[in-house]
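Hi everyone,

Forwarding the result from last night's run.
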Amino acid sequence: MLVYLISFITGAVVGYIGSKLFPGQGWGVIANTIVGAVGGYIGNAYLAPFFHSFENVYLENAVPAAIGGTMLLLVVMFAFNHDTGGD
């Protein structure tokens, strides 16, 4: 249960920071936070086996969650960019 909590919180923080670093990208603060949390869960599910060398359980789960949250947030920001690039 702690693993899921760490991954969701880490992903949510990544989503929030991403929405503040790149305003106008993605769907807004709340949606980017949710996307980051989902990405944190996905990253932890697929990348956690590669990070078992950490002694700390928080780092073991937070690092893959941060990577997953960042990657999913970048995909959403680039896929749904609302910038028209016009005059």
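Residues 2-79 form one domain.

Cheers,
N.
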